[in-house]
Amino acid sequence: MVPISFYPLRLRRISYLSCLATALLARFPLVLAQEVQHSAGATSLEEPEKAEKAEKNTQEVVITAQRRTERLQNAPLSVTALDAEKIEKMGIESVADVARMTPGLNVVSSGPGQNILVMRGISSSAGTAGTVGYYLDDIPIAASSNASLLSLRGVIDPSVFDIDQVEVLRGPQGTLYGSSSMGGTVKYLTKQPNFSQFQFNGSATVSETKGGGLNWGSNAMLNIPLVDNKIAFRLAAFERHQDGFINRYQIDPNNYLGALTSGSKQESANSEKTTGVRAIVSFKLEDQLTITSSIFNQRTFLGAPFQIDVPPGSISSLMQARLVPEPSTQVSTLANVSIRKGFDQFELLSSTSYYDRNVEIDEDSSKVLYYFYSPKPQTYVYPSVMKGDYVNREFTQEFRFTSDFKGPWQIIGGAYYHHVNAPLASSIPTPDGYNAAFGTHINTFFTGSREATVSETALFEETSYQMTPQLTARVGLRSFRVNQTFIQQTDGAFVGNVPTTVQGSSSDSGLNPKFNLGWQVNKDMLLYATASKGYRPGGPNNPAPAAVCGSEVASLNLSPSSLVKFAPDTVWNYELGTKSSWLDDKLFLNGSLYYIKWNQVQQQIVLQCGFNITANFGSATSKGLELEVVYHPVREWNFRLAGNFTQAELGNDVPGTNAKKGDQLVDVPRWTMSASAEYSAVMPNGVPGYARLDYSYTGTTNSLYDRASPFYQRAAFGMFNLRLGENQLSANSHWGWAFFVDNLTNKIGETGLPVAISADLPTTRRLGIVRPRTIGLTLKYTM
Q1: How does 570-602 read in b/e, with b if 16+ C-beta sit within 10 Å?
Q2: Distances from the Cα of 5 to the Cαs of 2, 9, 247, 554, in angstroms?
Q3: Per-residue pLDDT for 54 more than 70?
């Protein structure tokens, strides 16, 4: 039970936030009235230059998607760029937030740092790697192992504090970004040290979540030019504490689908604490030589997963039914040394990085044991836990040549090496007292370990030729080789108490081409066409015996080698796109049409012989439309609309599963959309303020191929976010503020159907959900 004294405390917190918000909101009605008068006549001469500069920057967004700096509207590819200002005003904190504002990108999220990325409908739950590239600067952070495909130990959510820009590149990026960038690439760009100016900024946030408690966080950044224009140091630190909003109840011992709601409970079980630091030092030496060294460390602790149990819970009744706590920790460390040497007409880059990610999970396995061991010997639900420890250690070296020739030719080329060591260990130990309670003699239910390695080498180039002042052709090629090994050991009652050791290896290679033609019709319109190939490496299988399964594999037209390894799968992407501005740069319209053919799809095949293998079976297609519109009718108003339609379907039945030809691929909504309206005003104190409303919509999404399952499909949902604030309290003030309401209408939507690390039961599942309505205030200081 909650102590009675808790409720006055919560009321005081809510009252404090409400009063503070009311005081800040009261600043806006007078401003709106004044601005309406300004709009009826000439523009106010008192409007500061900052508003003009912000508007110009919106029109002149610069990206690095093609490994060189260029204007967004001149880049012949489908890309969304969210700079630091947009990230702040949209209230973005996670890659799932990025996806809600970006057409073509979907994130299957089970909570902070528990994400699977899907782009342009290329969704897969088999294989050893994901289908979307994921980068922090030049460091790949997609966790290249089977861990990346299981949401509970999926890709990291790097803090967006002191991030300069997030770029989302849609379509295969296999030439410049390599393997697993089949659907596209997500790239975070950090702010770099300033060599000439001392800088400091910080912020503190407090908020309240419906059904939960108090959340708070703080950030600070310090930039010091140690030697003017020679050596600079930048340090960013952040901390976030979020109270949970899901209560954990005890499982009914006589009904594993029920919960004892009248008994003891753990309130706000799914709390989060994330802390981290990023340090960068940069040396600007003679002869255009720059050396930059950085290190980033982030730790996330979750009190419980951000999931509900259905049944007994539901979208309208958020609860977990578990007998043991389920804490998890994620510790990620990235280190990088980049050396850039400039010459008159080209630049050389060496980027050396190391990425270490460790995920430790406790998962309640009480229902699993009862499901498989009842009614005999187990007569009631007994507390048990599965423990998992998943590690990724990744070393990456890249050498790159980037030209700046005076003529029509330009080239980017280089060499790439990536090595992954990914050990994991998991176990379901026999709970204390279990044997005595049920008269059994079980030493352990399950223990397993796996040591996997991946080594990838590649050579790549992309050449462009400006045939006329308006027409530019690009041709790219990447040659790659991937080697993988694994050794796995298992024991325990789940595997018949027979210790087993299996091992395997695989090697594959290939070529990835890209062709692009860009036509700059005039200064306001670009048309482009692209044909590009993407790939994902194959890997070794847990071997299935040929004597038992060989004939069945042959009947599926699979080769005998499918029993021990699977090959890469590939996509060919065909795309037409446009980027344009209208009405004297008041209206921007970017769009693309695409068709993707996915061949030799890596799929989990359930064989009748009793074994499961990953095999290259059949094909799939994805076709769709992406659209982004930005409209600045007048200085004060800014509107944005982004949408995506994706039809991603299987090209064949998948043996041993419920997947049929023509089924929509799982985790791919047909429709997604986001819209925003922002009003910028000059406050009575002479400084600019803003009010912004964002809306995002995710359409109906299939979670499974089994239409008979109650978890087959998750419903569509939409969310509103409201934000308003000022960067300065007065013309000479260093202080600013922002008031926000996330999930304004308190819509609880499903974000995924997580895969358990123990086993998923057909009668009850965990559902990932969004955070309920959260009201908060941020105070910031800039120097």
Answers
A1: bbebbbebbbbbeeebeebbbbbbbebebebbb
A2: 8, 7, 19, 69
A3: no
